[in-house]
Amino acid sequence: MLKDMNSETPFYEYYRQWVDVYKKGAIREATMSKYLMTQKWVEKLAPELKLCELSRTAYQQLLNDYAKEHERQTTLDFHHQLKGAIIDAVDEGMIGRDPTRKAIIKGKTPRTKKIKYLNQFELHTLIAHRPYPSVRHGTTKARAVSCPQKTNRL
Q1: pTM for the predicted model, two decimal places
Q2: Residue 20: which CATH number?
């Protein structure tokens, strides 16, 4: 059952309903889990924030608070997920102006990423399941592929 939303509605409740109405069943499960995580963070960081109080300053503070614990790219994803709901609230007249306009995206310095390699089992599995036949030990002939010859003409 949909709750009647207005400008006095807490932002996290509006966002929860917006995700349920517009995203549920329309996006992949992994993407949906990211929207739900965004919803939890909004409720954690700004439980008292009402739609009518969502100014550029309040929105920037929400982003800044989120950025304290996340890398810049994650903060940008958070911003994009919130922005869709906020633009709809502006279109519905619940918010006067778009508070996401000119938002500054901050975040922690990215940590160094661990280089990932295939282990021996994964490598053998990959080789065994490749789409082309094996050319090892003379079991099959290699396919001839014709390529146009390059010419060095002046």
Answers
A1: 0.72
A2: 1.10.150.130
**Angle, CA 100 vertex, CA 29 and CA 27 arms, to 5°:** 15
Predicted confidence at residue 151, as pLDDT, reads 55
In angstroms, the CA 59 to CA 90 distance is 14
Q: Does residue 114 lie in a domain region? A: yes
- The alpha-helical segments, DSSP class H, found in the chain are 11-18, 29-45, 56-67, 72-91, 120-128
> Looking at the 3D structure of the chain, how many domains does it have?
1
Per-residue pLDDT tens digits for 26-72: 999 999 999 999 999 999 999 999 999 999 999 999 999 999 999 99
d(CA 2, CA 21): 9
Q: Which domain holds residue 100?
A: 1-128
Is residue 42 within 8 Å of 12, Cβ to Cβ? yes
